[in-house]
Each structure stands twice: as C-alpha cells, then as structure tokens.
C-alpha cells in the first residue's frame, strides 16, 4: 500500500469518489481514495437516484447542472453504464403560491442555462393519464434530468478515477489526522469482518498526504472529532417505499415511454416508476436525526425500521395523485440515514482552522451533487478557487457557537422543509431565539419580527405590536409579503426623519501590533485610512476575486478595527487568521481578536440623526461635536452618549446622514433606551434589515454575499475607487489578469405592481440572456422596483434598456448611473 500521496480522499461514496476522479482529471496524478468498507456502502447504496435540477440557489444549481451533464458522458469514458434514465422531472403545483415558487425558481434556472417547460393540468393529463390533475394549477417540467443508479454511477467514476491513476484502497479506516507543517499524517487501520460487524484490526499504516479531503457521509461527526473541529452534518431518517406492479401502468407503458419523476411538492413526496410498479419517497414531518455522536460498528449497509405511520399522509396523497396504485402491495422499503445540515446545503471547502484539509460532508442530495461537488472542489484545490462562488457551501458558514442539539433540530427542520414553499423571505423557527443581544426584548415589545444571521436574532422589520409569533410566517410570499408595507414606512422614515437599525450581528475584529499596518496594507486592496479615519476595502482571494468586504477603522498607528458582514464571522476569522499566520514572519507581530460578541452596533440614520445624537452627547461643546468640522464624513470618534462610551463612525449604509454606534454589549439596553427617548420628539423609528437592504441599493452599495463574492473582482463589481493600483496587495496581479468579464450595475424596474425582484432573476437584452440580478427590492425614492446585478460589460451603461424575467414575463429595466439617490453624496455629508 502506498504511504505517500499528494491527496488522500477519505470516503468512497458518490461524493468522495467524484472528488478523487476530478482531482485526477484536473491533473493531480497521485491521489488515493480510502474507504473503510466497500465503495458505495454508505448512504450511496440506498439512494433513490433522482437527479433533480430544481434548486433555489445559484451555486447549487451549477453543481447539479454539472453532475447531470457529466453522468451522461461517463459510459463513453469508462464503458460502464450508470443507468441514467433521462425521463424528465414533473413538478406539480396544487396552489397559486406553488406556481409562484416555480416561477421564481425558473428565472434562477435561466441564469444557469437550465431548460424547463410549463405544463397546464390538461397537458399533464394528456401525456400521463394515470395522474389525477383536477386539483392542480399546473407544473414545471425539466426534460433533461431523471434518475440514475447511485452505485453504478459511483463505480463508473471510480473506474474513471483508476484509469487516470487514482489508487483505491478498501477496508482501511482513517483514524487519526496530524498536521506536520506541510503535510498530513493520517493513521489508517485495516478493517476486518467479525460476526457480521466491521471492526478495527491491529494493523495500521500512516499515510503522508499533502492534502486530505474527508467525504465520510454519516460518519461526519466522528471525522469532526478526529479533526478537532465542529460541523453540523448529522443524518436524518429518510424513507422511500417500493410498490408491487401496477397493471394500469403496464397497460400505459405498452404504447408510451416511462413516466417522468413525479413530484407532488404540496404532498411532500416524489414518485417514479420501478420495474412496473412505483417508488414513493417522502419528506415528512417527524423524521428523527441519527448518529449525532457516531455510527455504531453494527450499522453498515443497514437500514432503520420502516415507520409507516410517519409517512401515512404522503402515502394517502400518492393514492390520490396516482389512483391506479391503490391496490398495489408494498414490495420493499428503505429507511436510511441521509446527511443534513441546518440549511440543507453541503459543507464543501476548506476546514476551519486547518491547512490543506478539505471537507465534503453533509450531502442530502449527494447523488445529484456528487459530480459538481467533485468538479468545483477540485478546482478550489488545484487552482485555488472555483469558477463559481463557493461561499454558500463553505463549512465555515457555521461558527463555533453551534452545538449538537442545534444541528440535530435544525437538520430535522431542513429535512421537513424540502417540499415546504421556499419563500425567499422565509425565516425558519427551530432553535430560536438562541443568540440575542440585550436590546432584543425591547425590540420585540415594539413589534420586531426577527431573522437569524449567524445565529443572532436581528430585526427584519417591525410589524404590529400585538402581531404574535405567526405574523412573520403568515407574511411570507413570493410577491410582496405582508411585511412589505412596514418596510416601506421604515425606509421612508430614514429618508425623511430618522431611523435606528440594529447592526449588532456585524463581524468585528481588532487587528493590532507592530506588523498590523504592513499586513493590512498587503491583505486589503484600498489605501489604509489615516488615524481616526475609516475606509471601505476588500481582501481578495488568490484568484483576485472578493473574499471579504471590510470597513477598516484606524484607531491608532498600529491598531485597526475591521467590520465585515454579520453572516460570515467564522469564514472571515479563518481567512484573516491564516493570512496573519502566513505573513507574521515578514511583517512582525500581529494580534487578531474577534470582538463580535463584545460590541453591539446601532446605526442611526436620517436627516434628524444629528439632532437626536446631539441631545445625548456629553462634550465640552455639544453643539459642534457632530459638525462636519469636528466629526467629518468617514471618520471615527470616541464619544459619550449619556453614560455609554461609544466608538462612533460617520458612515451610513442607507446613504443618509448617519452614524454607526459601536458600544459595549453590556450597555446596549441602556443605550437603546436613551436613543429611543431622545429620538421620540424627532419621530425616530426602529428600522429592520429589509428596509436597509432596499435603501442601500438606492445608493448602489454592494453587499457581501450578493454583489460581492468569489466569482467577481472588485473591478468587476465596478468599485475601482476602492482599489489602489499604485500599491502591491494580495491578489492584485490575478485581479488585473481577469479583466472585466461582467460588470455590476444598478437597475430601476417597471415590474409587476405586486412584486419586486428577489435578486436571482435573469436579465435580457431582447432575446439574449445578458446577466442576472444579485439583489432586488423596492425603492421608496423612485416608487418602483430596484435591483443590482451583473451584465455584460458593454451593457453597463447608464440609460441602457434591458428586461428582467419575473413571474414568467419580461419587464422593462433601465441601468442607472451609480448611486441613483444622492449621486454626489450631498445628503450624507450635510453639515450641522
Ligand atoms: C432513502 C434515501 C434515498 C435517497 N435518495 C436520493 C436521491 O434520490 N438523490 C440524491 O441525490 N440523493 C439521495 N439520497 C441521499 C444520498 O444517498 C446521499 O446524499 C449520498 O449518498 C451521500 O454520499 P456521500 O459520498 O457523501 O456519503 P456516503 O455514501 O455515506 O459515503 C461515505 C463513505 O465514507 C466511508 N467512511 C466514513 N468514515 C470513514 C473513514 N474514517 N475512513 C474511511 N472511510 C470512511 C463510509 O464507509 C462511506 O462509504 C438518499 C438518501 C436516502 C437515505
């Protein structure tokens, strides 16, 4: 057995096998795939093999699309038939809301080039008469996907991998991982059969590997323990049943091709043909999480007991939908572990805190995703970055605050929600509230409806005070939800009087020490601010794209305060710390402290914000303390508001006169009360994140995770004013080499009168698809929909007329000049 390789992939399911295959395809000729049992003996063996395109995420749609295209080619390459039945996929809607969901999805699908068709109930009946259609609104049909044999596709990829030089070792279990500065030493134990169990023998080898990938499926918790990290990948039970032959189906098939995969999302189930009968798979309520503390030795290619009661409702719904199956007996059942994460996306990317350690865990649609996951992860490993932004899949989107119970309950919730309407404005209820800042109860008493950001409860908007727990849930819509008019009032308050936004969830780091200045100058692309000033800047990836957006405050010569997006605390911390570790020897000592939970943040904004603060500020000359002279735009001052010491930053993400008030978390309740009292005579209103998101688009302020990410450079985001090309910085040459492939623009849209774009819609110039939206919302200033997105560079010209696809129609959109509201920043800089 080889004991030295470039890359060791642990886990021979569909995912690990695909990664080994793609690493070899990308040119790494020294790859080993290690499996503790037999290839496909994990969840892969009992998957139903469906390959659905449908997914509301841009990155995941790309991943699924790649898989589906790859699987069609594998037989040519390896001679092995993976049993890909391209039968299509029929997704039916029982309600108007479900059709709305499909229309929102369809425009996202278009941004990735995924084909689909619309069918009416009559068209469905005409093609597939066994399906009951009278209670349907319609359906979306994908003609190019279908289902595959999961074991066969894995074996085909394994053969392809072997053909490209990958070594496959079975019956070896990775048991310990140790990092030795430039390589891993992985202790592996020979596994042997004993009484039907697979147990560890005394035989061990140590494999030296430059890179390690773990794709250990249901064993993810054990893997995490061995690595000393936390991951929320924990399986949940998932069932499908196989029915006996259906005579009506046999009759139909005499003169017709196979049925597509039939999805009755409103009945939480999927159905497909299987040897003359049907398979019914369910996403029911009450499926329990399993193996939170490890998989027992006795559980190999095993299944759990079938719980028919749990899936009774879906079973009855299937008989309703395909009445001919009523008399078919039950032939077989599969109730197996399916790995989940709280948001249903896998954990794919670098492991937190570790070097050259890559995670590929938590796959719930692992057969569908395996091909693309392998392709894009191999790109990250071999080239440094993938061509799509992998942030939404990154393992570090969950922080250390997350516990086993949280992961279990959230994973059960994610499972239950597979077929629940995927409202873009949905906030799921499990495990909440968990992380609350001191002002939480006060905000709640004012009607705050919260969203969860990196675990923090953050007001999305303020509804009626006595609205109750279900208000937000009932407000959800694919169009303008019940919350919309509250957000309009809040956005107006900021433009016309004054509003108070809770931005406590922001990620905050202090970076200081003798090496801090040289380090940050190299790490970020803009000029560093002078002491007492702030700058907006970007840390780039090695490929020159945007890794993180920072507001940098220079508190002293070598003392900086970095503010970045709230959702990405662990993600930003990991990148910053690894960069510091790498560069400390060159730049001198650099200290990094994550102060996120120590500092709360309120943003006060609006024409009256200065008036509110001036009644609270304690200063020798309070009347001038907030003037442009003493407190200019883009500067920082330590001030006192009543008895609260505040680091105030003159900046406003809403584009209005305003300050961010960074304060000690333990004084937050006090500060909130003072601000609310002082603001009352000025009409101060608490404002949520949704209104803020609209307002920032009126100023063309890009947001991290939408306009800004690892698939575009800051120059493509059209932010040259924040890039100092006169200095050297990390990723500069790569950024310049990329050129401008697409450009970020702001658009005003004459859309439907009951909906705004969500930021995932396709953009057209005539018949040409020319780009996609990344953000969307409503502009109170212009009285119409507003959006941001990327288009071909030649179209990024103010006045350019385009169309945006919403609800299955094209609506006129016009590219605006940057910052359509207050383009000269006169309002934000107003003196007083
Ligand atoms: C009933 C059911 C139906 C499903 N239907 C579908 C479907 O239709 N479509 C779809 O896309 N997905 C489906 N899934 C989900 C799918 O099965 C999984 O997402 C997929 O198999 C995950 O593949 P994997 O490679 O990540 O994990 P696994 O297949 O579980 O592979 C992990 C492998 O790692 C090995 N391993 C673990 N620890 C070690 C170690 N320390 N050393 C060496 N080896 C190790 C294990 O032995 C195992 O072989 C279904 C799941 C269930 C339960």
What would your notes on this structure say?
The chain is an alpha+beta fold and 832 residues long. It contains 20 helices and 37 strands. The strands form 7 sheets. Strands 1, 2, 8, 9, 10, 11, 17 and 18 form an 8-stranded mixed beta sheet that branches. Strands 5-6-4-13-14-15-12-16 form an 8-stranded mixed beta sheet. Helix 1 packs parallel to helix 6 (150-163), helix 2 (58-71) packs across helix 10 and helix 14 packs across helix 19 (689-698). It is globular. The mean pLDDT is 97. Bound molecules: flavin-adenine dinucleotide.
Rg over CA atoms:
28 Å
Q: What number is the mean pLDDT?
A: 97
Poorly predicted ranges: none
Q: Main β-sheet: number of strands, strand sense, barrel status?
A: 8 strands, mixed
The structural class is alpha+beta
Fraction of residues in helix: 25-40%
Q: How would you classify the quaternary structure?
A: single chain
Strand content: 25-35%
Output the number of helix runs: 20
Distance between the termini: 76 Å
Small-molecule binders: flavin-adenine dinucleotide
Basic shape? globular
Number of strands: 37
Quick gist of this model?
By secondary structure, the chain is of the alpha+beta class. It has 20 helices and 37 strands.
Record keyword descriptors for this entry.
eight-stranded mixed β-sheet, 832 residues, alpha+beta, 25% helix, single chain, binds flavin-adenine dinucleotide, 37 strands
Helices and strands, with pairings:
Layout: E1 4-10, H1 14-25, E2 31-35, E3 50-51, H2 58-71, H3 74-78, E4 89-93, H4 96-111, E5 117-119, H5 121-127, E6 138-142, E7 146-147, H6 150-163, E8 167-170, E9 172-179, E10 184-194, E11 197-214, H7 220-227, E12 234-243, H8 247-253, E13 261-264, E14 269-274, E15 277-282, H9 312-321, E16 330-340, E17 347-350, E18 357-361, H10 366-383, H11 404-416, H12 440-445, E19 448-453, E20 456-462, H13 471-475, H14 484-496, E21 499-502, E22 507-512, H15 516-523, E23 534-540, E24 546-556, E25 559-564, H16 569-587, E26 591-594, E27 599-605, H17 609-616, E28 636-641, E29 644-649, E30 658-664, H18 668-679, E31 685-687, H19 689-698, H20 732-738, E32 743-749, E33 762-765, E34 768-779, E35 784-791, E36 801-806, E37 809-815
Helix pairs in contact: 1-6, 1-10, 2-10, 14-19, 15-16, 17-18
The structure holds flavin-adenine dinucleotide.
């Amino acid at each position: 057995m080889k004991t030295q390789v470039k890359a060791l992939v642990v886990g021979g399911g569909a995912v690990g096998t695909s990664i080994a295959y793609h690493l070899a395809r990308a040119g790494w000729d020294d790859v080993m795939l290690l499996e503790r049992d037999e290839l496909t003996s994990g969840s892969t063996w009992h998957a139903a093999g469906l390959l659905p395109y449908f997914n509301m995420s841009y990155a995941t749609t790309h991943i699924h699309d790649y898989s589906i295209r790859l699987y069609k080619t594998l037989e040519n390459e390896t001679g092995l038939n993976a049993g890909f039945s391209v039968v299509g996929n029929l997704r039916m809607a029982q309600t108007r809301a479900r059709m709305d969901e499909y229309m929102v999805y369809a425009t996202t699908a278009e941004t990735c080039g995924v084909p689909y068709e619309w069918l009416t109930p009559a068209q469905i009946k005409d093609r597939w008469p066994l399906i009951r259609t009278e209670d349907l609104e319609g359906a979306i049909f994908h003609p190019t996907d279908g289902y595959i044999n999961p074991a066969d596709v894995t074996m085909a990829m394994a053969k392809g991998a072997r053909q490209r030089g990958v070594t496959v070792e079975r019956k070896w279990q990775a048991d310990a991982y140790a990092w030795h500065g430039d390589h891993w030493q992985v202790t592996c134990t020979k596994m042997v059969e004993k009484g039907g169990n697979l147990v560890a023998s005394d035989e061990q080898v140590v494999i030296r590997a430059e890179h390690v990938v773990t794709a250990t499926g249901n064993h993810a918790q054990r893997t995490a323990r061995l690595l000393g990290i936390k991951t929320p990948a924990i399986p949940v039970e998932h069932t499908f049943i196989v029915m006996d032959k259906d005579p009506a189906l046999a009759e139909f098939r005499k003169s017709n091709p196979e049925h597509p995969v039939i999805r009755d999302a409103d009945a939480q189930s999927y159905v497909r043909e299987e040897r003359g009968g049907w398979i019914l798979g369910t996403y029911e309520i009450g499926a329990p999480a399993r193996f939170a503390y490890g998989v027992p030795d006795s559980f190999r290619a095993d299944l759990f007991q079938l719980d028919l009661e749990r899936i009774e409702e879906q079973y009855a719904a299937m008989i309703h939908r395909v009445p001919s199956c009523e008399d078919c007996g039950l032939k077989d059942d599969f109730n197996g572990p399916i790995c989940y994460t709280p948001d249903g996306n896998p954990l794919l990317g670098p492991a937190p805190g570790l070097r050259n350690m890559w995670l590929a865990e938590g796959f719930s649609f692992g057969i569908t995703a395996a091909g693309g996951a392998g392709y894009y992860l191999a790109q990250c490993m071999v080239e440094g970055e993938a061509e799509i932004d992998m942030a939404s899949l990154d393992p570090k989107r969950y922080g250390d605050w997350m516990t086993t119970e949280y992961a279990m309950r959230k994973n059960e919730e994610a499972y239950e929600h597979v077929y629940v309407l995927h409202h873009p404005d949905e906030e799921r209820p499990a495990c909440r509230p968990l992380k609350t800042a001191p002002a939480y109860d006060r905000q709640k008493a004012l009607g705050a409806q919260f969203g969860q950001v990196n675990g923090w409860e953050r007001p999305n908007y303020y509804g009626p005070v006595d609205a109750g727990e279900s208000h937000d849930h009932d407000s959800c819509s694919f169009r303008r939800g019940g919350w919309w008019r509250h957000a309009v009032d809040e956005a107006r308050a900021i433009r016309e009087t004054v509003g108070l936004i809770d931005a406590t969830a922001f990620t905050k780091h202090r970076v200081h020490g003798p090496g801090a200045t040289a380090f940050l100058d190299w790490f970020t692309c803009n000029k560093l601010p002078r002491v007492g000033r702030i700058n907006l800047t970007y840390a780039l990836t090695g490929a020159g794209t945007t890794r993180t957006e920072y507001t940098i405050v220079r508190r002293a010569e070598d003392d900086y305060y970095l503010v970045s997006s709230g959702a990405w605390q662990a993600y930003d911390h990991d990148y910053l710390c690894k960069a510091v570790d790498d560069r400390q020897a060159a730049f001198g000592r650099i200290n990094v402290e994550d102060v996120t939970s120590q500092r709360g943040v309120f943003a006060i904004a609006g024409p009256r914000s200065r008036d509110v603060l001036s009644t609270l500020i304690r200063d020798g000359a309070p009347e001038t303390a907030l003037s442009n002279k003493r407190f200019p735009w883009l500067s920082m001052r330590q001030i006192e508001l009543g008895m609260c010491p505040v680091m105030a930053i003159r900046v406003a993400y809403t584009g209005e006169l305003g300050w961010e008030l960074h304060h000690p978390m333990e004084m937050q309740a006090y500060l909130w009360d003072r601000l609310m009292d002082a603001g009352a005579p000025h009409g101060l209103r608490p404002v949520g994140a949704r209104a803020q998101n609209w307002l920032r688009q009126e100023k063309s302020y890009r947001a991290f995770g939408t306009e800004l990410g690892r698939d575009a450079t800051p120059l493509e985001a059209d932010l040259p004013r924040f890039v100092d090309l006169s200095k050297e910085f990390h990723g500069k040459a790569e950024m310049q080499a990329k050129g401008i492939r697409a450009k970020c623009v702001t658009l005003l849209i004459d859309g439907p009168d009951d909906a705004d774009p969500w930021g995932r819609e396709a953009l057209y110039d005539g018949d040409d698809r020319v780009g996609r939206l990344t953000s969307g919302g409503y502009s109170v200033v212009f009285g119409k929909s507003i959006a941001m997105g990327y288009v071909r560079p030649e179209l990024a010209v103010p006045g350019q007329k385009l169309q945006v696809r919403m609800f299955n129609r094209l609506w006129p959109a016009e590219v605006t000049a940057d910052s359509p509201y207050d383009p000269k920043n006169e309002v934000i800089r107003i003196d007083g």
